Here is the input.
Amino acid sequence: MEPEPEPEPVSESESESESVSESGTSSGIGRRRFLGYVLAAPALVTAAQLAPAPGAVAGIPSPEVTELVDLNDVMTAAALPTSNLITVEVGRDGTVSFALPRAEVGQGITTSTAMLIAEEMDVPLDRVRVSLADARPELVFNQLTGASNTTISTYTPIRVAAAVARGRLLRAAAVELGAAVRDLTLKAGVITGGAGGRSIGIGALSEKAASGEPQRVSVELKERREFTVIGTPQNRIDALAAVTGRKKFAMDLDVPDARPTMVCRPPTINGKVRSVANLAEVRAMPGVTDVAAVSTGVAVRAETFGQCIDAVRALHVSWNPGSAEGKSDETVLKELRAAELPLGLPPVTPSVEATFTFHFRSNSALEPNCAIADVRSDRAEIWSGLKAPIVAKQAIAARLGLPQSAVTVHVTEGGGSFGRKLFFDAALEAAEISQEFGKPVKLMWHRADDARQGRTHPMAISRVRAAYLGKTVLSYRQRHTSVSTDLGHGLGEVFTALAAKLPVGDIGFSETFFQLSQSMPYDFGVNSRLLSETDKGFNTGSMRNVYSPDVTCARELVVDRLAAKTGKDPFEFRRDLLRDDRARAALDKAAEVGKWSRAMPEGTAQGIALHTEYHSVNAVLVEIDCRPETVDRPIRDGVTGPRVTKAVIAVDVGLAVNPRGLEAQMMGCLMDGIAQTLTSSLHLRDGYFLEASWDNYFYTRQWNTPPELEIIVMPTTTGKPGGAGELGVAASMAAVACAYGRATGTMPTSFPINHGTLSFEPKPTVPPIPQSPSDGRDHAR
Here is the structure.
């Protein structure tokens, strides 16, 4: 993001009072001046004025699309024109408020955002109040949470708005204290200076610093060497509320007359109601207030969720076939093979070739899919954890037949997402049900609903061919074939709006996403990666890191094979062929701290892998135990298998705003990577998934969590933040796969490796909500 090249002249006094300073980066840019606004308001409200950098992607000599422009660049450019609509407000009580136009779903962005404001304004972190903004259509593409873009795209706008506020407060204090601005200091929310060292809090200046009309001002942001908050480890500002149960999620909200509501869903994916045999009988059940067929099934509203579950289980519904009727893992795999793009003629030099299969995986969040809706004849109000609230608002208004101005969509904090809450199916469904019943509803999906009818990571195959001669890799080709990924949540619209400026040609949403998110960190000669998609009969989504875990896992396994073929150590082979010093430094650090190539018992091994994306770099080293005594550990109704015993993660995000938050993100990414390599998948049979709860779906459990974990945050390199939330999944998955291959002597080609072991008895699809277990005490320890 570039500053305004020549801001309008300002007076000497204004320049002094509005100036703070911004960091020089490794490129030696030094201080940079930005324009901002003081908005017309009773109290001090400020905003940034930013514009896209002209020619930002021109003239870079590189064959890699992502070195010209990547997905994050596109999302940042799309958000930039409306950055001036995002404001910082100083309250009379001395707090600073900011309505973040992104969704906090546990990734910690409210904390990092508060840190940016606290840094530029020199106020204590606990005096910054970050809330989540309602859906604001005027923000256009500036209210979409995904692709690890939040901190990248908001880093400068938020700081500029905060710096404008700081300058205005200093100017107002100069008048009150009878001192020159240069003689004042602002620390911990208090301005001191003037005769006798008088002081005044920023709350007392809020009205005095305000403006009756918009004013354009110039500011200089703090230099990085002056940072006292950014780059320092900070605890989550919402941690205490979370662990004490005071944090408010959608289901915690007390909306008048919003009663518990659930839906009886079809036995196959996307089936539709044909008829209901016992509506009157179910309506008469205890606590039930309303029952009706809706587009997704049969909705039930009752006094308690327990009564909803009883009613759903009691319904007798006839269903029409679903969109995946009769399909299974085997039939989908055949479709994928048939849709695979050709690799071209075999090379005349030696080559390595392999095909990898990645099964369906659940995109369920820890928090059940849920929403509250209160729909009246002339208006509607919705509450839900939404990462694309503008698109949700548009869709809800269209479904209800109301103008968008009559629909209010509140974004609540979410208990997890990583792609799931890009989709607003619960909010749209709740709105439809509320309109049908004419009453407010508090809709919650059952765990079985989300596992069987919710969003999934699409099944895919990835075929790779790499040609080499001696110790040189001449070419690398990868053809990734996937069940269609649904991008109908805002990202597709971003691509459409910026299509003429993207260096990827006239291609579809998914291929654009794919090309803008995949990079080749190695000097592999002529390389190409192409995506082919098929079968839109599944509810898929942009699961955490989207295509990268599968694509990178396949690539890194082939890299291990190439190292073996050329007689080189896997670490040394990677290191010698890396194109970037940041990547090499991260790889070196992971290998050093993880003691790469140390002697290990038979049946155990190390694996190492690298991934670059979001202007960031991640290297992961793991150790795995594949010995029979570990693989065959007895676990009740569970997949045990190999165990990752140690992990070392080296991460370079350019500038880590909150290193402690970054460490937490990497820890979560590692757990995702372990799960996707070893245990987590959905089994498709006869048009439905067999899994019906977290009991059946084996995300990384305690028995497969590494007892040794070290995360190294690399020193600042670029001087500006890169993405982190999704970064660590791909390298983690690949490192575990490489370690497994070295420990067993056989390169894995189907993921997760335990997919073929069905360790549970599938729950029935009718009724769609399984009976709750009653033997929990028997298994308590």
User: Anything to note?
Assistant: Confidence is low (pLDDT under 50) at residues 1-30, 53-62. The domain at 12-55+62-238 is CATH 3.30.365.10 (Aldehyde Oxidoreductase; domain 4).
